[in-house]
Amino acid sequence: MSVENLQKTSDDRAVFAEEDLGYHKALKPRQIQMIAIGGAIGTGLFLGAGGRLAMAGPALVFVYALCGFFAFLVLRALGELIMYRPSSGSFVSYAREFYGEKMAFAVGWMYWLNWAMTSVADVTAVALYMNFFKQYVPWLAGIDQWVFALSALIIVLAMNLLSVKVFGELEFWFSLIKVLALATFLVVGVYFVIFGTPIEGHTVGFSLITQNGGFFPNGILPAFVIIQGVVFAYASIELIGTTAGETEDPRKVMPRAIRTVVIRLLVFYVGSVLLLSLLLPYSAYKAGESPFVTFFGAIGIEGADVIMNLVVLTAVLSSLNAGLYSTGRILHSMAISGSAPAALAKMNKAGVPYGGIAVTAVVTVIGVILNAIVPAAAFEIALNLSALGIICAWGVIILCQLKLWQLSRRGQLTRPDFRMFGAPYTGILTLIFLFSVLVLMAFDYPAGTWTIASILIIAPALVIGWYLLRDRIQQIANEHNQSDVPSKRGLL
C-alpha cells in the first residue's frame, strides 16, 4: 500500500473513532467469550424449536446445520471487519465507510427493527414461560400475560442502564446458565438414548424417527419453510461486533471467541435438536412450549421441567438484555453521523447510551400490548418481522467484507490476518442463501407472506426518514470535511 493510502486510511479511522468516544472499555475476555457463546443460544432454540419440530419433524436437524454453516460464515466475515477496525457501531459503521450514509441509514434502522421485534418476542416468551408456573403457584393464575411481559422489560431495562460492566456481568451469568443447562441436557439425553428413560416401555433412539415418518414426516416443503425461523434462532451472533468498542484489546480477544463459536453451534443446536428427536416423537412437541420442558415433563422426572423452564426463562432475559444493549450502541453510532435523532447519542456518566436503549424499550411496550390483545400470536408476529432485520444485517456484513476484499485487491487497504476464508466465493454463496430465505418466507402463508409484504411499508418509511434527516447528515459530513480530516462519508 502506498504512503498516501496509508495516511488516508489512518485519517478515516480517526473520523470513525468518534463513534466510540465516551464508552468505557469495561468488558473482560471471559465476558466476551461467554457473550459469543450465549449470543447463539436464545429464544429461537429454547422456545421456537418446539413448534418447528412439530411442523417439520426431525428434518429440523438438517435445517439447523445448514443455517448454522451460513451463520458461521457471517461471523467470520464480521470477524475480519472487526480486526480491520473495531467499532461499537459494528456493521453500521462499516457500511458507512464502504458504501456511504444511505446504506448505513437503511441497515441501522433495519437492525434496530430486528432487535425491537426480538425484544417483543422475548417479553412474550417470558410471559409464556411464566404461564407454565401457574400450575405450581396458585396466586400467579390471576395475573394476566401482559403483566409478566411488562415486569421483565422494566427489570432488564434498569440493569442495562447502570453500566456496561453490569451488562457484561449479567450476560456472563445468563450465558453460563444457558450453556450449563444445555450441556447437562446433552449428557442426560445421550445417557437416556443409550440406557433408556425411567419410564418403562418408553422407546428412544433412531427407531422413534423411522417409525414416525422418517426425517421428513410432513414432506420437504415444511423443512424449507421454517428456515427463516431457524435463521432467527442464530440471530445475535453478530452482537460480538458491537462489543468490540467496549473491549480491552479486541484484536486479541475477538478471533479466539469467533473461532470457538462454530463448534458450539454444532454441539448445542444440531446436537440438541437431534437428541430431542431421539427422545420423543416429533409430534410430542408443540408451539408455545419449550421442547426441553416437554421432554423432562414427559419422562416424569419430578421437578426437572420446572428447573428447565427457569433456565429457558433465563435465556429469554439474556436475549432481551442483549437486544437493549445492542440497539443502544447502534442508534448511538447512527446519531453521531446524523442518521438518527441527536438525542440518541447522549450518554450517562457510566458511558451508557441511554437514549437508544430507552427508544427500544418504548417500542417493546408494543409487545406488552400484543400480549394483552393477541397473546397466542404475539410471538410469531414479532419473530417474522425480526427475521427481515437480521437478514438485512447479515447481508450488509457480507457486502462490507466483500468490499474490504475488493479494496485490498486494488492495494487501497490491507486485509487483517484473521480473514473470511474462501472469499469472495463464500460471501457470494451466503448472499444467495439469504436471498433464498426471503423467497421462502414469501411462501410461508400467512405469517411469512405478510412479513414480506410489510416491505411495502418499511421501504417507503426508510425513504421518508432518509429525506427528513438528509440535511443533518450532510451538515455533519461537511463539519468533518472542514476539520481537514478526509472522510468516506459521501452521500451515495
List the helices and strands and how they pair.
Elements: H1 3-16, H2 29-38, H3 43-56, H4 60-84, H5 90-99, H6 101-132, H7 145-162, H8 164-195, H9 207-210, H10 221-225, H11 227-234, H12 239-243, H13 250-279, H14 291-298, H15 304-337, H16 354-373, H17 378-409, H18 425-442, H19 447-453, H20 455-482
Helix pairs in contact: 2-8, 2-13, 3-11, 4-11, 4-13, 4-17, 4-18, 5-6, 5-17, 6-7, 6-15, 6-16, 6-17, 7-8, 7-15, 7-16, 8-13, 8-15, 11-17, 14-15, 15-16, 17-18, 17-19, 18-19
End-to-end Cα distance, whole Å, is 26 Å
Radius of gyration: 22 Å
Strand content: under 5%
Please state the average pLDDT score.
80
Oligomer: single chain
Q: SS-based structural class?
A: mainly alpha
- Shape, please? globular
